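Re: beginner question about structure tokens

> Can someone show what the tokenized structure looks like for a real chain? I only ever see the sequence side.

Sure, here's an example I had lying around. Input first:
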Amino acid sequence: MNKKDFFQILSKELMGIPEEERRDILAEYEEHFEAGVSRGRTEEDILNSVGNPVIIAKELKAATLIRIAEKESSIINISRAAFSTIGLGIFNLIFVLVPFLAVMIILVILFTSAIGIIALGIAVIIALISEPLISEYVVIGMKIAPAVFLSIGSIATGVIFFIGNMELVKILYRLFIRYIRFNVRILANRRQRDEI
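And the corresponding structure tokens:
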């Protein structure tokens, strides 16, 4: 592999991150090569010292996507960051994908529960309103006052639960970003040790 091949592979593997970030990374490596040549190093020596462009690109892409997910919180950004981290190795398939999927499943269950509690309150209100029409099918014998309090309480509880879930999402989002950043750092350090 020569310098031209290195940059073609690196550029291709960095697709999927913002163009400006991609250009900055390529410029940084170009400067690294120029500095090495100015110190009398050969192109081959520099290539051996920087490492495999595919692995470099995966690590840089993961770090960039993590940084984007930190700045702009969204399910898409955290998913892209998580899946780019998973691409760094089989180790990450277990230590990133499994926690990511577990957290997502738990959040879906929590939000579904909150919506269900709200729906229960709404259903009781609908039953109260339509009770004269369908009295034999719904809440027969239920007093109006307890039913109203049940529906208000259920809706309020569901809304509070939903808001709590939103706060939990923010906390878990930040924790997961830290976790995958830590994971990328471990893999990068291990790769550097292996190259020495």
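Each token stands for a local structural state, so reading them left to right follows the chain. Residues 99 and 176 are 9 Å apart (CA to CA).
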